[in-house]
Amino acid sequence: MEYKVFEIEDYRNIVKLLGDSDRVLYGEEISEDYSRDELGSVRVMPKVVVKAISTEEVSNIMRYAYENNIPVTPRGAGTGLVGAAVPIYGGIVMDVSGMNKILELDEENLTLTVEPGVLLMELSKYVEQFDLFYPPDPGEKTATIGGNISTNAGGMRAVKYGVTRDYVRGLEVVLPNGEIMNIGGKVVKNSSGYDLKDLIVGSEGTLVVITKAILKLIPLPKKAISLLIPFNSLENAIETVPKIIKSKSAPTAVEFMQRAAIEAAEEFLKKPFPDNTSDAYLLLTFDGNSKEEIERAYEGVANICLDSGALDVFISDTEERQEAIWSARGAFLEAIKALTTEMDEVDVVVPRNKVAEFVMFTHTLEEKLNVRIKSFGHAGDGNLHIYILRDDLSEDMWKKKLSEAMEIMYDKANKLNGQVSGEHGIGYAKKRYLFNALSEEMIAIMRGIKLAFDPKNILNPGKIAQ
Hints:
This protein is α+β, with helices and mostly antiparallel strands and 466 residues long. It contains 15 helices and 18 strands. The protein has a five-stranded antiparallel β-sheet. Strands 1-2-4-3 form a four-stranded mixed β-sheet, covered by helices on one side. A four-stranded antiparallel β-sheet has the order 13-14-12-15, with helices on both faces. It starts with 7 loop residues before the first helix and ends in a 13-residue tail after the last helix. The model has no long low-confidence stretch (mean pLDDT 94). Keywords: FAD, Flavoprotein, Oxidoreductase. This is FAD-binding oxidoreductase. Its cofactor is FAD.
């Protein structure tokens, strides 16, 4: 596809369409932040940034871009980790973070209608005032809901409640040609043709620009209790997880962590973790409407863990104890970043009974390649976050070792019947691993879907299967 060379006249036309030059950034006005997301290693500056604040503005800009063959990259908070919000072909960055209104709480249908720029933490706090609950819980609370939908973000509660896709009832979207389309709605069931809504969830801004979302809510559980369970070894800890899942006790979250990550979090937060004497831990949460209900659930799990070699079971039933544990878990990513000069992530998902095998494999790989590798993750759903650290490696050696480590790990995940990404998406950075994992027929179908939505290939080109 030949894209139009962006000219000063295009900038002037876009300013006219918005009627507000302050929300159209051009040339030196554009911050370097717009060239990248949190991955950092992939950077391309856009020609112009449009800060849209309405569906109509998004529609007008998309129509202009479509008629003039100008690529457009949608962007929320820029917290992604795969380069999905990087404007690979320059052109327009469509910043929808200013579309951040909570539009309607429908308590009869248990839905919340929001614009895409609403932050996850704001959404969760808002609905809790009404004793309602939005369960998806990705680690980055400053991400936008539009970004969460675009990557089908998961988080720690996925083991019990599912992922973002399970809570999207309807979407208002703008097609690449500027047409506005409403998909789904407030209905609970829908078998009316192909499910375009679920196709758009996880499409990383390559098919449409999301301008509104209708989200499913559930009643807020009245109480939550966490268990911190130390083990002698990580292998022992993770091998206990399938027994927990089989027990039908339905924990809200099942996380694994190692001492190195805990120590990094302690240093980063400047406060102690409740226990750091063991090499490995499971962190479980149970929620429900009464203390008795939760106790019935966790007592059986505590016994399973002790019978499987757990050294102890620490029960965190106060806000202070829970905060001490979960603040450390929430700080793992930033704490690991602080340990090194640069890092990149493998966000694989494997069958739950293969988690221990994969994690132990990364330990042998660390020794084989002589590069530091840190990990933590969602043991309850098989989604692992493995971080390769650069430290003092030269640029050439870093690229070589990073490429080798990723190639080996994605190949291992594939052999274990896993997938390339559990929740962060493919974007630009993980495309080659997707191509290696999927058949030519599957890639061709993905490209056909992209073509059906976007025949001119102007919307976030160069991502996922392209």
